[in-house]
Write a structure and sequence with these properties.
InterPro entries: HipA_N1. The protein is an alpha+beta fold. The protein is 21% helix and 17% strand.
Amino acid sequence: MSLEQYPLLRQLPRLGGPVKLLQVFNAGRPCGWLGCEDSGEYWFHYASGSIEQAAVSVLMPPSRNLYRWPELFPVFEQHLPNPAGCALLQSLYPEVPLGPLELLSLVGANTLGTLTFANPDAPFVQARSWTTEAELARRPLDTLGSAAVPLLSSLNAQGDCAALVYAHRAFNVPSVVAWAGTLAAQTPWLEDLPLRQRSFQTGQHLQWALRADVDAQGLRQPWEAPHSRLGLSRAGFAAVKKDPRRWRWVAQELGYLKTV
């Protein structure tokens, strides 16, 4: 397999080797460092000791400077593909074992919410262009070039992937999420995304919606997936949803009671 088979994924950076450390940004500002011990334990260290800075997660306030977790923190795990998507990426990068830090380095700045990631040992500048919603109405994703960047959290085993699309020239962030209709049918990834419900559109090849985590000035706003707010992995959250009694309580706590 090759990245050339998947036009949207061609924009991903190349990996020169294992990733030991990632710099984390919050709303474009350096906020801390994410690493993994040889034991497999993950740690996140806020770059500043200020308790006034924005938290990276509701469960990780800056009142503590250092956090440790036996696996990748849910607030960072929410940006990764499901296991099938991770397996596909591994087949495209056979020279480097892809663990969570390597995967997050591929995610980079192409995230929902305010958190983005950079590998300090391999800086990467992504090309950027713009399109319009009128173009989205008539063109498939793989013809949009650098106006559409992959949203890796939606990647599936077939290589289908949604995109974050630069559709507003006054904004420095992609303001639209676009996807092929088949992707929405294959996976439940749309369920909890921050999308403006009244903005959903359907074109000849695509569906798309405005991001609710980008405001009218084109600034990223905080967003954290429901499983992350509970301190659960995606798999753990899926198990909770299968238990009607537990899910009713959780849904009420998260404001999701309307979906029960």
